[in-house]
Amino acid sequence: MIQLFKGWKHNSIWIEEAARLLGRHDLFDIKLDMGDVDKSRPLLFPIHAGGMWNFSPSTKEFDVFDRSVRGAENYLGAENTFLCLDISGEGFPIDDATLRNLHKELGNFHLNPKRVIVFTSSVDAPRDYNEWCHSTGTAPAFEPVPLQVQLYFYAGQYQNHRKHVEAVFYDSLKSLTCPNPRKHKFLTLNYTPRPNRYAVVLNLIAGNHVKDGLISFHGPKVDNASPIDNMSSYDSENAVLDMLAHLELDPTTLKQIGTLHSLAPLIVDERSSRTDYAYAVPDPFPYLNSYLSIVTESDYTAASGLRITEKVLKAIANCHPFILVGAAGSLALLKSLGFKTFAPIFDESYDLEPSPPKRMRMVLAEIDRVLSLPLNEIRIMYEQLWSVVLHNFTLFHFGSGQALLQDPAFKFATGK
Fold it and tell me: Within a domain: residue 155?
């Protein structure tokens, strides 16, 4: 059980919210007064910090210390208390200026570095941070602790949607023998414009696959979105070409940029906000009318560290096999969490290819190969993959609460 302080106005933590959604209230011992704290056990003093960008010296308006940490010094001086900066909904990009600013701010509090933790979704964060400290000759100021909160939080969102879960299961089961197959071969959802998403949709156009699937691509700029959604927006073909240069796409694919922009917005998953796009339980219709997902993850080059997000979890939650266009090692990370993937029916050799352009060529070639099959053969492929699909579906919906107990962050917080 995690001893968690929530008696201050800025106390907030993703792991506790995720556990609550999963019905695991028993995992936390909530303290509202420091006088009630068991000093023999670790106590987390959590502050929701958003993302690493909030520690950047250039984002004064989002300065997590000014809006959250200052004024908490009396709490943080207590014995066995850990300041927990929670960015577990985001990755851990190694940015020199941001890390130096974070070190400077933490130094102002004179905290023991071993009593300051940063929860992050990046499994690479401990290694990346240690390498940065070593290369810059900087003493560590905190301990990064990986936390797969996206898994627990998103699974928790489904707890009040059991009819949705049952409908997806029974419809998927029925599709194995139904004489009237699903109408579409694939589904791919792409919200914020990113290089890997452009590459996938351009390749679908070049391969004449658009007619065979359900495609969301909102365009070079997302309407009515926050600045963070449009931080990678591109308002000209030349800007898009520059953005895609590192992927070394073939000329035929790149020639489709104008066509893609003329088609956009392509919308399957209409939602009212970025948060709804990310975490609301989706309409099952697109999943129940297609056989597989082409998932374009948030990170492709792992600049923010290796992590999984709700994007691949949507496919798992809705009985879809998937081809994952993400950072190298993304499928391996899923397997480390107990999920299964789809080799040898899907060629997944792309997953461990470290070169971004080569990995992109490999995954696009596999997408082309699969989508070139007739619809009935893809239906048969779905039947062959059903045992894996069912394993993942069951683990996600009924095993995430137990998986939380094995998460490194939970073990750290409980002192085990």
Answer: no
Question: Rounded to 10 degrees, what is the CA torsion of 192, 194, 196, 197?
Answer: 40
Clarify whether residues 285 and 393 are in a common domain.
yes
Q: Do 222 and 74 belong together in one domain?
A: no
Residue 179 belongs to a domain with what CATH number?
Answer: 3.40.50
Q: How far apart are the first and last CA of the chain?
A: 10
H/E stretch holding 252 reads helix 251-254
- pLDDT tens for 213-268 read 999 998 877 655 554 555 445 667 888 999 899 999 999 999 999 999 999 889 88
Last residue of a domain, one of 147, 179, 199: 147
Reading phi first (left if > 0) and then psi (alpha if -120 to 50, else beta), residue 222 is in: beta
User: What b/e readout covers 148-172, taking b as 16+ CB neighbours within 10 angstroms?
Assistant: bbbbbbbbbbbbeeeebbeebbebb
pLDDT at 278: 63
The answer on 347 and 240 residing in a single domain is: yes
- d(Cα 163, Cα 168) in Å, to the nearest integer? 9
Express each pLDDT in 103-156 by its tens digit: 888 887 778 898 899 999 999 999 999 999 999 999 999 999 999 988 998 999
Instruction: Please indicate, yes or no, whether residues 340 and 365 belong to a single structural domain of this protein.
Output: yes
Determine the Cα–Cα distance for residues 315 and 294; give it in Å rounded to an integer: 9
Same-domain pairing of 171 and 135: no
For residue 143, CA distances in Å to 81, 86, 234 come to 14, 12, 37
Q: Any alpha helices (H) in 29-120, and if so which ranges?
A: 64, 73-76, 96-107
Side chain identity at 103, as an amino acid letter?
H
Q: Of 65, 117, 118, 52, nearest to 91 (Cα)?
A: 52
User: Residue 409 domain-assigned?
Assistant: no
What are the phi and psi torsion angles at 147 (to 5°)? Answer: -145, 120
Question: How many angstroms separate the most distant Cα atoms in the chain?
Answer: 69
Structural domain range at position 231: 161-400
**C-beta of residue 25 within 8 angstroms of C-beta of residue 15:** no
DSSP notation for 123-178: TTHHHHHHHHHHHHT----SEEEE--HHHHHHHHHGGG-HHHHHHHHHHHHHHTT-
Q: Domain count for the chain, please give it.
A: 2
Local structure of residue 328 (DSSP, 8 states): T
